[in-house]
Amino acid sequence: MKIRDILQAEKPVLSFEVFPPKATTPAPESIVRAVEAIAALKPPFMSVTCGAGGTTVGFTNRIAAHIQNDLNVPSVAHLTCVGTKREDIRAQLEELRGLGIENIFALRGDMPAGMSPAALDFKHATDLVREIREAGDFCIGCAAYPEGHPESPSQKEDIRFLAEKVAAGCDFLTTQMFFDNNILYNFLYKVRDAGIRVPVIAGIMPVTNAKQIGRIVQLGGNMVPPRFLRIVDRFGDSPEAMKQAGIAFATEQIIDLLANGVNAVHVYSMNKPDVAATILHNLSEILK
Ligand code: FAD
Predict the structure, then answer these.
(1) Alpha-carbon span 179 to 229, nearest angstrom
(2) What angle do CA 169, 42, 137 make, to 5 degrees?
(3) Ligand 1 centroid to 68 CA: how many Å?
(4) 158 in ligand 1 pocket by Cβ < 6 Å?
């Protein structure tokens, strides 16, 4: 089933994300079990990330196929293009088609240090979106950054390129995580003002350990509100308390999003079925 059709529903959509093992290791049983436990919660769909530079692409595709074909949950396979030759991308699209995957999340991926953009077959995610469109009837999702992509000189320019990405054939957007919903509401206003009409899925990360916050801020430059920093200060040294507080914070963010008309939320559940299950439990009446 295509994600663009799932997003037409009036009922709120709460989806989950999993990540594959590194390509150099066999798929550990623990990852397969985590994926299956999240699928057993019957979310409207699940997405499977891929490693930087497409390093886990084989596992990504097979896990996405397992979720969709064996566990009966619609899935999205992430695909990055930076540093990948056009013929390799075409081969991957062929593999995805052969596996019956209908939904692809098209990403540039992080630019490897020292790589010259001039030498690349794919410079931006937009180039990949065009390639996928030519390859057939896939439903295509792309990334959006409510706080601006770290490489962008301005949010205005970032949104201009986002509009190009959508015009190239992207069907839906999923946002980078954010910890203050006002950031998303302001972003949505600007996105709609730029003429972008596709559904925007809000990305929510339940932070369940204190170390994650440091990594998140370092990687994406996310603004973390003082309210959340105080939670980390108070509970960061107690893993169970931090997990409970992190899930409660994410739940509250989701309730506020739904109350303000954002009908689709993607939870960065990071192969943690207990976190996904607790959030679903917290929202059991709200999601009906
Ligand atoms: P693009 O859309 O190409 O944008 C990258 C930068 O280029 C932006 O600053 C943009 O403004 C600029 N730009 C775009 N078009 C042009 C143009 N024509 N001219 C000049 N500048 C332009 N990474 C992974 O490795 N694996 C994953 O599975 C993965 N999943 C993700 C899921 C989500 C929801 C998000 C938000 C990110 C994910 N990422 C993943 C991270 C992503 O790969 C990086 O953020 C990467 O640096 C940018 O990828 P993109 O597809 O957004 O790039």
Answers:
(1) 11
(2) 20
(3) 25
(4) yes
Q: Per the residue annotation, which of 10, 17, 87, 94 is the catalytic one?
A: 17
Asked if residue 231 lies in contact with residue 169, where contact means CB atoms within 8 angstroms, the answer is no
Ligand 1 centroid–CA 35 distance in Å is: 25
**pLDDT confidence of residue 15:** 98
Whole-angstrom distance between the N-terminal and C-terminal Cα of the chain? 21
Supply the pLDDT for residue 25.
63
CATH architecture for segment(s) 3-282: Alpha-Beta Barrel (3.20)
Q: Which ligand 1 atom minimizes the distance to the CA of 49?
A: 28
Q: How far is the CA of 132 from the centre of ligand 1 (A)?
A: 16
pLDDT digits (tens, 9 = 90+) for 26-82: 667 889 999 999 999 999 999 999 987 777 778 999 999 999 999 999 999 999 999
Q: Which atom of ligand 1 is nearest to the CA of 203?
A: 34
pLDDT (0 to 100) of residue 58 = 81
Residue in the structure block whose two tokens are 């990055």: 80
Nearest to 203 by CA among 279, 257, 140: 257
Cβ of 203 below 6 Å from ligand 1: yes
Q: Is 240 among the catalytic positions? A: no
**Interacting residues of 251 by C-beta distance below 8 A, sequence separation 6+:** 279, 282, 283
pTM for the predicted model, two decimal places: 0.96
What dihedral do alpha carbons 192, 170, 158, 217 form, nearest 10°?
100
* Residue stretches of the chain with pLDDT short of 70: 23-27, 218-221
Most informative mutation of 105, 132, 149, 173 for ligand 1 (most atoms within 8 A of CB) = 149
